Amino acid sequence: MPHKRTLLVAGSLAAALTLAACGDDSGDSTGSGTNADAGDDTAAAGGDTDGAFPVTITHAFGETTIEEQPERVASVAWSNHEVPIALGVVPVGMSEAAWGDDDGNGVLPWVEDALAELDAETPVLFDEADGIDFEAVADTDPDVILAAYSGLTQEEYDTLSQIAPVVAFPETAWNTTMDEMIQLNSQALGMAEEGEELIADLDQQIADSLEAYPELEGQNAVFAYLDPNDLSQIGFYTTHDPRAAFLEDLGMGTPQVVSDISADSEAFYETVSAENSDQFDDADIFITYGDEAMLDTIQNDPLLSQIPAVEAGQIVILQDSTPLAASTNPSPLSIGWGTQDYVELLDAAVTGR
Predict the structure, then answer these.
(1) pLDDT tens, residue by residue, 180-194
(2) Could you tell me how many helices (H) and strands (E) the chain has, helices first?
(3) What is the DSSP code (8-state) at residue 208?
(4) Exposed end of the chain (fewer CB within 10 Å): N or C?
């Protein structure tokens, strides 16, 4: 039995939440416009946006023009709501968190913390378990709908566009980077400069989290997704997916098979037959979601156990549907909440500390 350097996350880990301080072009504003009642008109920016509108945003379905500063902001899909909240803007409606929610209230803990910082009530939550609830979105009477990171179909985009101007993903479904999401969504709010400042702030937060872990630099990491009932395929997130891209942001490398397949694919997720597990022979860290049994399942599998990282026990298992597992798909508010804990787990996989 290989050595078990077990890194099993049992639940949420408290961490500080840092909100970006944003200013307008003139430097007169802190970008702190907020609204404690999400049912009222939402201040779309804390500063002067004169001359920012109309704004035209190009995306996968064409162009969206926003004629004037939005006062009521809604969002659909994963984490788009975090951009306005990080910029001090409370949406009138946003997606309900169905994964990673530790207390069952439909809001991830870092979003709860940010709303509390803004002394704001929870916006209307859209249940997207069976797809976008168009009626619920329409009931919030939005001026703009943010969906820069999403998997919108043409039909969904067309339907939402009958409600309000929609900011869709730039090229391919679910392939928007966090920076692109911030740039597109903040541009729609008339807060493009504040968005760039937010990106710079998040970059610094990541750099600060890495200072004590130089051993991670250059380590090749694969973020896998495995079905414990069928290990005939090794699923993994491509470099187009924010989870894999975030590992690169952390200074880590990418196994060659992941790079090669990503170069020929537009998908955020691909698979390799477990019979070809030797293609991951340059992976130093193996990351996946799972329960308490997943470690034994992986290490006892005759094919997966041949992967050097698995054989060496250099595995990070993120307990399914915990906040920390959700935070590994990075977003503007989760960076300050979970990155330090995530980096510690990655480092422990490499060093055994």
Answers:
(1) 999 999 999 999 999
(2) 12, 12
(3) H
(4) N
